[in-house]
Specification:
With about 90 residues, the protein is mainly alpha-helical. It has three helices and no strands.
């Protein structure tokens, strides 16, 4: 599995985000989630984190509240600059 090249280019990070988010997510949260994912796909098994550590990290990220008014978001061409009535929280 050769997924690492995507993890090395920040310009490609938004391609790995769930398209249903429509670009409305905190960039920092995306970077942190991708850092966890990158550790999980290390070629050498001994370099991969324990699943308990992955669960802990992802649980922490999922518990963070997302306020698009105060946190930077990843903009995409398909996203609108007007606030949506409901947004998914990370």
């Amino acid at each position: 599995m050769k997924a690492q090249p995507l993890f090395k280019d920040r310009r490609k990070f938004s391609q790995m985000a769930d398209p249903l988010l429509q670009g409305q997510y905190p960039v920092r949260g995306l970077y942190q989630a991708l850092a966890v994912a990158a550790m999980c796909v290390q070629e050498q098994p001994h370099k991969r984190p324990l699943i308990a550590d992955v669960v802990t990290a992802l649980s922490y990220l999922a518990s963070q509240k997302y306020n698009p008014e105060t946190q930077p978001v990843q903009s995409t061409r398909s996203s609108s600059s007007t606030p949506r009535s409901s947004r998914r929280e990370l």
